[in-house]
Protein: CxC2-like cysteine cluster KDZ transposase-associated domain-containing protein
Organism: Suillus subaureus
Amino acid sequence: MWKHITTKEGVGHKSPDYLLSTPGVVENLSLSFHNSHTMHQIINTIPSHSLWHTAYLSFPDNPEEQHMVQYRGPLEAICTLLGNPAHAETIIYKPCKVFSDESKENRIYSEMWMGKWWHALQEQLPEGSVVTLVIIATDKTQLTKFSGSKSAYPMYLTLGNIPRAIRCKPSQQACILVGYLSMDKISNSKLSKKEKMSRIQCLFHDSMCTILEHLKEAGHTRMDMVCGDGKVQRIHPILACYMADYLEQCLVTCVKYGTCPKCQSPVSELGSNTPGELHTQAWTMGVIKDAKAKSHNLHKFHSLCQSKGVSGMVQHPFWEGFPYFNIHLSMTPNNGWSELSQISDRERKEMAHILLGCLVGKVLRRVILAYHSLLDFIYLAQYPTHDDHTLGYLQDALDVSHKHKAVLIELGVRDHFNIPKIHSLTHYINSIHMFGAMDNYNTEAFECLHINFAKNAWRTTNKRDELPQMASWLDRYENVLGKTPNPCETNPWPHISISKRPHHYGQSLQDIMESPCCPGLIQDIKNYLNQLQRRAIGEGLGYNRLEMMQLPFEKLDVYHGFKFVLEELGEDAVDDCGPNDWVRACPKTRGPHG
């Protein structure tokens, strides 16, 4: 219990020592450690999910200036996620098509295995192969808010095979931090501003190459992996989705800032209601290689790329060579736009709630229609389940918004609507077709992870050479978290909380069988144990049934009631296993003579 409090809750390093030095504390609590150093040594003996590695990157003209990348293998992270017994029964290994009726004319899109992309990919793989949908997310986050502020660049990995209801809950540990990208500054004073920017972007792509290199190889050759249910699956880990904000989308896809990372629409046509021709990796690499062959310096290379809508800062993108992967298709549409900085998603939603009410009676009807249809689009896009009908409503709302938005230009509110984030709305429907509902790849899902994986980890360091220290703290945090019992995992009914105090301690089975209040209880217990045994061993493997056998215990604790909570749906669902209702056992009332 003490290890859980000190390591997980972030108590200062000296506080445990002060408490443990109090006479009688160690003896009365039966602790196996007497100070925080010994406690950390015990935690370090727990096997970690995967080992951390350190890589150093440098440029040929300045090999002495090295840039650190702290990471752990993505394949080990995938093994951890697929091998988690708590998720063994929920992980999906093959895609499926779901329709709303028997005519199969209205297709439903919800989870990632319902999308078209997985189906198309499965047909290209050998028979018996299982697709593992790898989802990557990066997000630069500020660690301090004052002058000389420091930043961290965490990179997260999760799997589309895991249901989104599990992926979005940090307590389920379905998302793993696989690395801290290099945030070092380029100190060479002889370089121009453009050359420094180019090197920063090259450093980002080289860091990604270092971390994901083995994932690229495994996608080509496939690998055998033991899953949480004990079965061996032959998997192909394929990079499916990349979640990032707009700035990082341009950086990852190597497109020019101000253009669309997914299609080739010119800047002057971003206000159109229809997307342009989709980008492909072959086209982007063709532009980069052609510009590289025709230029003799960075300025010429940059100019040639910019003329085609490509950034021109990076000559070797990290995604080159990944199998069955198109970074432009896999880049998820950005889901937020505002001129306000440092605004949270909750604040943005609250503003949307009152926006229309503030405009009623103060603006023209066309302005109301423009904003009304845009809000309709936003709320329709947040549906956890879509079908062909709801996607039609989504397109209609977008059409109405584009039809009436010109009134804002006439009134002088804006000069144009060639805004990349507004243009990204035209790609929502295609992304839902490909990868399911938008909350499968929403950047909001990873915002809460910054607190533990970046901010809290940084606060435990001495603020010098912090990445190895952050990795060490994260190992201890995960080890303690993995050993801390979760009431939702230990309870066979995840939404039911049994009353903590039994009504009868150790009541004998003979008394239970003779009681008229609960006939058939012993048989129900045997049936439940048979189900557990069948699940652990497998059907048809000759397990011993308990129908004609004695139960392996003689007494039971009898409870007088239990609490339960219904599973909530939608984005407002709370990661909470707390009770909200009671079911109590009411014995039969005795008769007048009884």
Residues 181 and 553 are 54 Å apart (CA to CA). The radius of gyration is 28 Å.
